[in-house]
Design a protein that fits this description.
Elements lengths: L2 H4 L6 H16 L19 H15 L7 H4 L3 H13 L2
Helix pairs in contact: 2-5
């Protein structure tokens, strides 16, 4: 879990987006700056196996239990970040 999430400090939306871009980039073997937050991650080659791995990464980093359908319900980095920020704010 990240230090800021552990300490109960608000996590910045931009930090979540940057973290998600980096994780998606690692899965699809691209530089993070090539991941457009508004493009569906499936267009970069993120499949169901990678998306499930991303859910595990989110749980480990932010302590959030997310559904395996996260990437289909919120298909872009921006949409996922907004959703995760809402989940973090609700805690």
């Amino acid at each position: 879990m990240s230090t800021s999430a552990e300490a109960g400090t608000a996590v910045d939306l931009e930090d979540i987006r940057d973290w998600l871009r980096a994780r998606v980039a690692a899965y699809v073997v691209r530089p993070p700056q090539e991941i457009d937050p508004l493009v569906p991650i499936a267009q970069y080659g993120m499949d169901s196996v990678y998306s499930l791995g991303l859910c595990g990464d989110i749980e480990a980093e932010y302590g959030l239990a997310v559904e395996p359908t996260l990437a289909w319900e919120h298909p872009t980095v921006a949409a996922m970040a907004d959703h995760l920020r809402g989940m973090l704010s609700a805690r």
